[in-house]
Amino acid sequence: MATRRGVLTGAFFALLALAAVAPMLTGVAKFPQWLEIVLGGLMSGVLYSLVALGLVLIFKASGVFNFAQGAMVLFAALCLVRLMERMPFVVALALVLAIMVALAWLVERLVLRPLVNQEGIVLFMATLGVAYFLDGFGQLAMGSDVYTLDVGMPKEPKILFESTFEGGILVSTEDVIAALIAAVLVAALAFFFQKTATGRALRAVADDHQAAQSIGIPLNRIWVIVWSVAGLVALVAGVVWGSKLGVQFSLQQVALKALPVVILGGFTSIPGAIVGGLIIGLGEKLSEVYVGPFFGGGIENWFAYVLALVFLLFRPEGLFGERHIDRV
Amino acid sequence: MSFDEARLAVAARTLGEPILALEGVSLAFGGVKALSDVSFDVREHEIRAIIGPNGAGKSSLLNVINGVYRPHAGRITFRGETHHHMEPRRAAERGIARTFQSLALFKGMSVLENILAGRNLLMKSSLFLQALRVGPALAEEIAHRQRVEEIIDFLEIQHVRKTPVGRLPYGLQKRVDLGRALAAEPRVLLLDEPMAGMNVEEKQDMSRFILDVNDEFGTTIVLIEHDMGVVMDLSDRVVVLDYGRKIADGTPDEVRASQAVIDAYLGVKH
Fold first, then answer.
1. How many domains, chain A?
2. CB-based burial of residue A114 (10 Å sphere; 0-12 exposed, 13-18 middle, 19+ buried)?
3. Which residue among A287, B21, B45, B74 is the one 20 to 30 A from B156 at the CA level?
């Protein structure tokens, strides 16, 4: 029932908001401290959203769950960091973008095209292969050290509202810039998908392959475009994450967090990827600080997966995903 | 134009040269023969029906014409070019559009966007210009929108133009499907059971649209339909398939009188 579904979604958000402000209401936390944690959580949520966005784009357009998205983030960041040793940032960035487009083309040619019309699980396994290839090839060609990616983002945190609260609020400038970049990227993607004929063709393929073919949309070219866009998103995520955490293999582990994000938001929803990322980022930071002490800490590492598990049990299509009803 | 007047108009219209011809087309899936040695032609401006019992190979035939299936034998001639098989993209470029038996609309999009998507191949400006919405790209978009609005008026779906198609009732979704095919300004329109699952009133509306398309734009129409009454009223010539073979071909009256057709539909003692 649509109405019951709406009520459930509303109830979920209400519960979430309540849980988020609970530390404040019960007097456990002071407002400025709480606000700092919330902001920090939302910022790391933005980073999860960036990877989740790449997953959703490919899933929508081709029904393929791209396990390699995390590997693409690491690969893009690795390429960038090594190229920047030899050339200025802007040139290196353009070159990496070209590499990601070439990668999209290769994936379409060598992996997707021979497997067209195969089961979803077969294509999923193929992306698993792409992920391992990118890992191995990336480290073989560019080394497996930890690299520092310095793209000139200001590192010093800023203290805001010093006059309003005692001690003010500590905000990381780098995180704010990252959030702004993500917002611009999402707005640009939304414009591209909604307002251009190519975006229309992409949505057409996502909705119905056969009908899209019948009006002359070439599936192969669309797949190259989608994987290129996912490559672009991976590059942006790689730059932001790499400069925050350093470029290293563990980036891929953090990228795995995008999986619970899409389960929460729904595999087919771009707004879902963004909201899901924010909820998980916020949730894990708040629970780490306020609930963590009761469990001896470490909640941040598994919070996202438990939340995703709850969603799989009660709302497998996610918050914004399409419900799949088959005619029998 | 009323339904009966339209029928008279069709009867009075003269047919052109063959625009599409299939020769000896055979198609098999594994060991199952879907089509065996099927030959027929479609003349310009005509309404050509393909009928037959369930599983006779009607939809397969349509899929061969628009390039989704590659036949194992035979040739297809379309607008003077002969090939062993069509490609979906080439078929669309050369002027073949189609509708689908089970609705295959772009569910997330509005009626307007669905029909606009049908003009995909007619859009020429580069991605860069589209994104900026300047100069020729803007003028082009406006021109396309105008044509789409005309189609929406023609199909009498103005009141739902901004509605996501997934929310429309079935009968209207079928009209949007037709609208998307028309938007490509096709030379040949393939209709796969355009009236399946409709009530009498909806069928009459759809028949009227098909006749008007044929009459006003001169579009050649190939149609699969189960409702015998509709087929006999609409079409100029009828192909009858049974178990993948052509068993009759001619005007509605000739086909109706054919013993093979009567046997196929009513069953025959062996």
1. 1
2. exposed
3. B45
Find chain A residues with C-beta within 8 A of B108's C-beta: 203, 206-207
Residue of A197, A201, A218 with shortest CB distance to B89: A218
Q: Is B89 on the interface with A (CB under 8 A)?
A: yes
Which tokens sit at B174? 């079928």
Out of 3.40.50.300, 3.40.50.880, 3.30.530.20, 3.30.830.10, which CATH number does the structure's domain B101-185 have? 3.40.50.300
Treating both helix axes as pointing N-terminal to C-terminal, what angle do A2-25 and A270-290 enclose, rounded to 10 degrees? 30
* CATH number, span B1-95+191-202+221-270: 3.40.50.300
Q: Band the pLDDT of B12: cuts 50, 70, 90.
A: very low
Cβ-proximal residues to B91 (8 Å cutoff; 6+ apart), any chain:
B65, B66, B67, B78
Q: If you count them, how many residues does chain A have?
A: 328
Interface A-B, measured as beta-carbon pairs within 8 A, has a size of 76
Is residue A298 domain-resident? no
Instruction: Examine residue A19 and state whether it is found in any structural domain, yes or no.
Output: no
- The pLDDT tens digits for B66-106 are 888 899 999 999 998 999 988 888 899 899 999 988 888 88
CB–CB contact A214 B97 (8 Å):
yes
DSSP three-state, residue B116? helix
- pTM of the entire predicted model: 0.77
Report CB contact under 8 Å: A198, B88.
Answer: no
Q: What pLDDT score does A257 carry? A: 85
- Give the one of A200, A211, A214 whose C-beta lies nearest to B113's C-beta: A200
B-chain residues near A195 (CB < 8 A)? 130-131, 133
CA distances from A42 to A38, A59, A92, A206, A251 (A): 6, 25, 30, 30, 19
Q: Would the CB atoms of A204 and B117 count as touching at under 8 Å?
A: yes
Question: Which residues in chain B have Cβ-Cβ distances shorter than 8 Å to A218?
Answer: 89
Of B87, B33, B32, B37, the residue nearest B65 (C-alpha):
B87
In this complex, the residue of A197, A206, A214 whose CB is nearest that of residue B88 is A214
pLDDT tens track for A91-104? 999 999 999 999 99
Is residue A319 domain-resident? no
Residue A193: closest CA among chain B residues belongs to which residue?
Answer: B131
Among A247, A308, A256, smallest CA distance to A279 is for A308
- Domain assignment present for A281: no
- Per DSSP, B133 falls in state T
Closest residue, chain A, to B101 (C-alpha): A211
Inter-chain CB proximity A198 and B121 less than 8 Å:
no
Q: How far apart are the first and last CA of chain A?
A: 19
Mean pLDDT of B163-170: 88
pLDDT tens digits, B23-45: 999 998 888 888 999 999 999 99
**Closest Cα partner for B233 from B218, B247, B253?**
B253
Q: Facing residues of B250 across strands? A: B238
Domain that holds residue A122: 33-249
